């Protein structure tokens, strides 16, 4: 086992081998998801999944636009089974938080569900709660959403027609930027997911169609295929 040279003191944190490789790439300045996937000769979706887990466990942090940065700590590589078991037992350090979820006041649960229905990102929900004096983290927010059945009552919130009304101008501009660069729809959807914007391909297509993003890029093959299939009318 070897630790990263950028940290010489502090608590030793065991992480999985694949996470260590990505962490080292981040430290070396390879910080875009696509570049990391190329450097590791792995699929975009596989690296995206690993990076999402690394963000959850505070090994990396999102910077937007598919960019990530390392969270500098004294990491060493541990066997996958050992690391996974340790994380499962520790519940990512949120044991006390989880125990408190069932005691969440009704007004907070109601507020969260209202924002969830409005297509508000989870990060923004956390920020809004904080501005109201309620301090919770993303992990606890997810637990509240699952524990109180908010997700079950709103299983396809990002597929509702009104969802388009709550997509911010910044998000639309970001989609346009990626689309003009020729980024595939699946990758655009993944990039948005990295920013906590849940947008599947059908909704992404509707967004592109509604805001005429495709009209300035009619030579793109994927647009031609979508139009031919009737997905863009």
Characteristic key phrases:
233 residues; mainly alpha; two-stranded parallel sheet; two-stranded antiparallel ribbon; 4 strands; 7% strand; disordered C terminus
Description:
This protein has helices spanning 17-27, 33-40, 44-56, 80-90, 95-101, 106-117, 122-131, 138-147, 150-153, 169-180, 185-194, 201-210, 221-229; strands at 12-15, 60-64, 67-70, 74-77. It is built from 13 helices and 4 strands. The N and C termini lie far apart (56 Å). Residues 1-8, 91-96, 215-220 and 223-233 have low confidence and may be disordered. Helices cover 55% and strands 7% of the residues. The strands form 2 sheets. Strands 1-4 form a two-stranded parallel ribbon. A hairpin with a 2-residue loop joins strand 2 (60-64) and strand 3 (67-70).
Topology of helices and strands:
Layout: E1 12-15, H1 17-27, H2 33-40, H3 44-56, E2 60-64, E3 67-70, E4 74-77, H4 80-90, H5 95-101, H6 106-117, H7 122-131, H8 138-147, H9 150-153, H10 169-180, H11 185-194, H12 201-210, H13 221-229
Helix pairs in contact: 2-3
């Amino acid at each position: 086992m070897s630790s990263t040279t950028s940290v010489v003191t502090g608590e030793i944190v065991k992480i999985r081998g694949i996470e260590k490789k990505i962490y080292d790439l981040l430290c070396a300045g390879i910080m875009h998801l696509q570049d990391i996937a190329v450097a590791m000769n792995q699929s975009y979706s596989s690296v995206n999944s690993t990076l999402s887990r690394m963000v959850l466990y505070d090994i990396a942090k999102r910077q937007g636009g598919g960019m990530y940065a390392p969270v500098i700590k004294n990491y060493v590589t541990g066997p996958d089974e050992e690391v996974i078991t340790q994380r499962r037992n520790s519940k990512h350090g949120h044991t006390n938080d989880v125990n408190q979820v069932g005691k969440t006041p009704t007004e907070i649960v109601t507020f969260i569900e209202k924002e969830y229905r409005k297509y508000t990102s989870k990060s923004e929900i956390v920020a809004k709660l904080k501005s109201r004096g309620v301090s919770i983290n993303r992990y606890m927010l997810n637990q509240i959403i699952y524990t109180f059945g908010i997700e079950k009552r709103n299983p396809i919130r990002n597929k509702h027609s009104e969802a388009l009304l709550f997509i911010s101008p910044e998000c639309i501009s970001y989609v346009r930027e990626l689309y003009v660069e020729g980024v595939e729809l699946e990758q655009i959807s993944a990039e948005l997911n990295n920013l906590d914007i849940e947008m599947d391909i059908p909704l992404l297509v509707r967004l592109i169609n509604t805001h005429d993003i495709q009209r300035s890029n009619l030579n793109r093959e994927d647009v031609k295929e979508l139009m031919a299939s009737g997905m863009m009318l």
